[in-house]
Amino acid sequence: MFNNLKSEIENFYTSPADFMFVDGYSGIGKSLFAKQICEDINRVTIVSSAVLTNVPSSGSEKEFIIALLRKMDFNPLRNTTLELENQLLLTLSRYLILVIDESQNLLISNKMMLNHFSLLSRVVDQTNIKVLYIGTLPLQSRIESLNIANINRRSIHYSLIA
C-alpha cells in the first residue's frame, strides 16, 4: 500500500500539480509515512528540502505560519500576519516540499479552508514548493464545492485502502 503511495509521491515531484492530498483510515501509518518521506528527502539532499508540520485543530493562519516557521527552526519575530507570511515565503523558498499532516483539521470551517488554501496558493506560486497533505478525511469534495483558488485543478488525490 505504501509502496504505491511512495511511487505516486515520486511522480508528484515531477508533475505539473502543486498539491497532493492523501487520505486514509486512522491508525494505518500515514503520519509515520509522512515523517519517513521527509527524512528520506532530507537525507539525499545537501540542505533540508522537506518540512513536516500539522494543521492545528483550531486557530488562525497566523498560528499556522508561526508553528510552521518554528518547525523550520526559525523564530518568528514579526507580529502581523502579512509580515509573518513574507517571512514564511523567504524561508520556504529553500524547500522542495511541505508535508502537512492532520489535514482533516481544515474541515473545521469553510473560512479556515479558504484562508489556508489562499495562503498556500500564494506560497506555491511564489516559491515553487510542492505541498503534500495527509489526513483521515478526503478534502476533495469540499475543495470542489468551494472552488478554492483552483486548488482542485492543481492537485492530485490519493486514497489509501488498507
From TrEMBL:
SUPFAM superfamilies per record: P-loop containing nucleoside triphosphate hydrolases
A Pfam family that the UniProt record links to this protein: AAA_22
Domain ORC1/DEAH AAA+ ATPase: 17-142
Protein name in UniProt: AAA family ATPase
